[in-house]
Design goal:
The complex is a heterotrimer of chains A (322), B (321) and C (295). Chain A contains 13 helices and twelve strands. Classes of the chains: A alpha/beta (322), B alpha/beta (321), C mainly alpha (295).
């Protein structure tokens, strides 16, 4: 049993908003283990699920109120920033926001090569950058002198990926990396991620709300709702055979580019719900209780533990072993 | 035929030297009681086309061509005054749900006032009665009636979206334009909204035009799809044949690049990027990225070929002779 | 001809700004004013003396070159007073802006990048000064320091109040830039905090700083004039403000000595309009450029 690449242990992050300081748990007692082998781990959920907050917690942008995060067995707050950045690198959602419009993007590739990858020789820096650029499908000469506004969104995202690859990290955290790109270009970036995993052995945490791409590329998946992980397991299994009522609704609601499935999609009517979002965040029990068709009284007051069904973990009283 | 657009052009004139040719010679016909989708990616001109069809031309947008509305004996929407459209057409005969519509509500007016204002203006009824009608309507759309007392900022984004959709359907229009109605909402609410729109469409026998880049939405709710690229319609077909057997190279690549649940076969996407509409390439706009580009594609704009009863493709591969 | 790249960048910015009509007008006005104030270098020390010309002449408009704008009630040449006053007022404005807006820049940056107790401390400091009513405080200060105030220390006194709003401005810009994604990327590129400040954040801040600087010039000249009209400035020196003080004091209005009243007022108006136009053009120029678009 080797030491996991990343271990998130009972992490909670509390935010307050509004004049009255309404407190809510953006991430509520989340635990995730990513083993030490090349894989793509997807964290899926919608807006308000806490997935982006979790990414920022792992990137040390936010600090958890409770719990801890271990990378190769060491608490990340005990690892000095420079070393941590050799280990984990981010890819942001908005390619235009990833680089400072006032500077040339090549600057960040050079800085990463010098500071994180520790390459001293200037010529070697440029060579390494050129090699990685061509790996992601870009040309060094087309990149080196341009400013951010001279690139398209797809090109900028490739630049961001190239930058993240320079120090050969063990783990790349990609927060909705393709949601701002055109549909026809998305698959190219997704395929690139798969190639990086296969060729370079780098693992990914892929954060998304798009279950179709999640199915296409992930090994494992964690479904989040209002700050908690409701289901966790092998990606193909979870998405083909969802156990948690939320995962089931999510998959049923997905509009698929296959007209043959239309009748099935139209038939499953979703009840109008008149829930109030703030209430959902502060429920003591399962957060999905207001929308769940199977909810019982227990669900409102007692948070279900992680119950193992085959290899999948579900946080739902439906699967309670009697 | 409910609406017919003939050789419509739409341009954003930024400065005397620079104009963006967003819509470049589009002709399309909308029939009664159908759901038609307009698909395409960023910059293809679909939002501009909808604005032109609705007759909503705000500078720097200028349009030319004819948009014939087949009510009261048919007249050209582009040639009547905005006042006329506001009084007689908009909200009543045609409705428009804009992109990011959750931000379209007046922040200083209660939700109820939005409904009452519309009702009083077009139905000429008293305030109290208008309020009662609004209450009933809102409940029939699955929302609580005390939503009328709230201000827009007190509601969540999804709720506001539902309110805007309800407002658009309030006066029972015959044509409904929805521009990316569900892009900013989560998947579950998306389904709720789409169900709402399609149920109402059936009930009113209206024409629903859905503009979105999400091909899944087109597959699920439309009967016919028009695919746009660089300001032109490149393919138009009934939905199922379009997805099963796309003809235009762009549509083929687009549809084949979409991952689906339950299918992990490798897929490939398009290379390159969409053309700069200030300076479009000669010939077929798609030729720089087309795997089948021929010499003629680089020189001349393709003619529209009729492949089947309702299928049209603008591509030299299908033009005989 | 090789031009230092920094100077070239400056020239390019100037050229782009010159495309705005407002900027051209503003720069023209300020150029004229500076030219006028430079004439003061040619003034002989005698201009401060009363009655250089015959003692019994009443204040009047004369035709001699030396007295092209006539005399004051004390027989001094309005023209020479005016050019010196203009020069002094502009200098006060410039010095206050140099001192005050740079203090504001420094404290604003520190307030924007610090966290925790330090941050609260800075916020307290800045906000306390921001809410102070400027003119009343300056009046009190001027009264208290009347003995030790000279034309050279007025900018320091004005700076006490001038730095607060620029600090607030700079802080909010720094905060908003620090929260953007590319700062995270910069940090994960191993760029040290000091470099992030200098190369990632400062380009945004400097734009605002320039606007603040110009606005402080206007504010300082206005404040000094206001103090002078109350008689709280350095009355033995000439500034546009002190000119107005003496105008009021010697009832020039009632006596119809328009050639003494109009010049300072006209110059003040021109100063405000000129600098305002420049400031507005600079702000407009900054905006589309920040979006990374083509200038």
């Amino acid at each position: 049993m080797s030491i996991p690449l990343l271990k998130v242990e009972n992490v909670t992050k509390v935010f307050r908003y509004g004049i009255l300081g309404f407190k809510f748990r953006a991430v509520d007692d989340v635990s995730i283990v990513i083993e030490d082998k090349p894989m793509i781990f997807t964290i899926a959920g919608e807006s308000g699920s806490g997935k982006t907050t979790l990414a920022k917690l792992i990137l040390k942008i936010y600090r958890p109120e409770q719990g801890r995060i271990l990378s190769m067995g060491r608490d990340i707050y005990r690892i000095d920033d420079n070393e941590y950045h050799r280990y984990i690198q981010p890819i942001m959602q908005d390619p235009y926001a990833s680089f400072n419009p006032m500077q040339k993007p090549i600057r960040y590739l050079r800085e990463t090569a010098r500071n994180i990858a520790g390459i001293r020789d200037e010529k070697e820096v440029e060579e390494r950058i050129a090699k990685i650029l061509s790996y992601v499908g870009l040309n060094y000469v087309d990149v080196v002198n341009k400013y951010q506004h001279e690139f398209s969104g797809g090109e900028l995202q490739r630049l961001a990926i190239a930058r993240a690859l320079i120090p050969r990290p063990r783990l790349i955290i990609a927060d909705e990396p393709v949601s701002m790109l055109d549909a026809s270009l998305r698959i190219n970036i997704i395929n690139l991620f798969k190639n990086i995993k296969d060729d370079l052995g780098i693992s990914f945490i892929y954060i998304t709300h798009d279950l179709a791409t999640a199915y296409y590329m992930s090994n494992k998946i964690a479904i989040m709702f209002r700050g908690t992980v409701v289901e966790l397991g092998d990606a193909r299994k979870v998405l083909s055979n969802p156990l948690h009522p939320y995962t089931q609704t999510l998959i049923e609601s997905l509009p698929e580019p296959s007209p043959k499935k239309r009748r099935y999609w139209m038939e499953k009517k979703i009840k109008f719900s008149t829930y109030i979002e703030e209430e959902e965040f502060v429920i003591k029990g399962c957060k999905y209780v207001f929308r769940c068709p199977y909810a019982i009284d227990k669900c409102k007051h007692v948070l279900p533990p992680y119950i193992k069904v085959d290899d999948t973990e579900v946080r739902c009283w439906l699967y309670e072993k009697k | 035929m409910v609406l017919k657009a003939d050789n419509v052009y739409g341009e954003y004139v930024i400065s005397p030297q620079i104009s963006i040719k967003a819509v470049n010679n589009v002709s399309i016909e909308l029939k009664k009681n159908e759901v038609i989708g307009i698909a395409g990616e960023s910059g293809c001109g679909k939002s501009t086309l909808i604005k032109i069809l609705y007759g909503f031309l705000q500078p720097p947008l200028t349009a030319s061509g004819k948009v014939l509305l087949n009510t009261k004996g048919g007249f050209d929407l582009l040639s009547v005054s905005e006042d006329y459209k506001r009084e007689n057409i908009w909200w009543k005969i045609m409705s428009y749900i804009p992109q990011n519509s959750m931000n379209v509500l007046n922040p200083f007016m209660k939700i109820g006032d939005h409904f009452v204002e519309l009702l009083r203006k077009h139905l000429k009824i008293e305030k109290d009665e208008a309020y009662r009608v609004a209450e009933e309507y809102v409940m029939s759309m699955g929302m609580r009636k005390d939503i009328l007392k709230a201000f827009p900022h007190q509601l969540s984004g999804g709720m506001r979206q539902r309110v805007v959709v309800s407002l658009a359907l309030l006066l029972k229009p015959s044509i409904i334009f929805a521009d990316e109605p569900t892009t900013a909402v989560d998947v579950v609410l998306q389904k709720v909204l789409l169900q709402l729109l399609t149920d109402k469409q059936k009930e009113l026998g209206a024409t629903l035009v859905v503009v979105t880049h999400d091909m899944g939405v087109h597959a699920m709710i439309t009967q016919k799809v028009a695919v746009m690229y660089a300001g032109k319609i490149v393919e138009e077909a009934p939905t199922e044949p379009l997805f099963e057997d796309p003809k235009h190279p762009y549509t083929q690549t687009l549809i084949n690049s979409l991952p689906r649940l339950g299918d992990d076969r490798p897929r490939i996407g398009l290379s390159g990027s969409p053309p700069d509409l200030r300076n479009p390439p000669p010939g077929c706009e798609f030729h720089p990225r087309c795997p089948f580009a021929m010499d003629i594609c680089r020189r001349e704009k393709p003619l529209i070929a009729k492949i089947d009863k309702d299928r049209y493709v603008a591509c030299w591969l299908y033009v005989k002779g | 001809m090789y031009i230092n790249p920094r100077i070239r960048a400056f020239i390019d910015v100037f050229k782009s700004l010159s495309r705005y009509g407002r900027f051209r007008v503003g720069i023209a006005i300020i150029a004229i004013l500076i030219a006028l104030s430079l004439i003061s270098l040619a003034s002989s020390p005698r201009y401060k003396q009363w009655y250089v010309y015959p003692k019994d002449r009443p204040p009047q408009l004369t035709s001699s070159i030396d007295m092209i704008l006539g005399t004051t009630t004390n027989g001094r040449s309005v023209f020479w007073i005016m050019v010196n006053a203009l020069a002094n007022s502009l200098c006060i404005g410039l010095l206050t802006a140099l001192i005050g807006s740079h203090i504001g820049l420094l404290i604003g940056l520190l307030a924007g990048i610090s966290r925790g107790k330090m941050e609260l401390g800075f916020i307290l400091l800045v906000d306390s000064f921001v809410v102070l009513p400027g003119l009343p405080i300056l009046i009190v200060l001027a009264l208290a320091l009347k003995q030790s105030m000279t034309i050279h220390t007025i900018p320091l006194i004005l700076s006490v109040i001038a730095w607060a709003w620029p600090a607030r401005n700079v802080r909010s810009i720094a905060l908003s830039v620090m929260s953007r994604d590319f700062i995270t990327i910069a940090s994960f590129s191993g760029i040290k905090f000091r470099s992030i400040l200098l190369y990632e954040v400062m380009p945004y801040v400097l734009g605002w700083h320039l606007t603040n600087f110009i606005n402080t010039i206007i504010w300082a000249i206005g404040m000094e004039t206001a103090l002078a009209i109350f008689g709280l400035s350095i009355l033995s020196e000439d500034t546009l403000g002190t000119m107005l003080y003496w105008v009021l004091n010697f009832n020039a209005l009632f006596r119809g000595l328009w050639w003494w009243i109009l010049p300072p007022i006209a110059l003040l108006i021109l100063i405000f309009i000129g600098f305002y136009l420049i400031s507005v053009s600079v702000s407009t120029y900054l905006n589309p450029r920040l979006r990374g678009g083509v200038a």
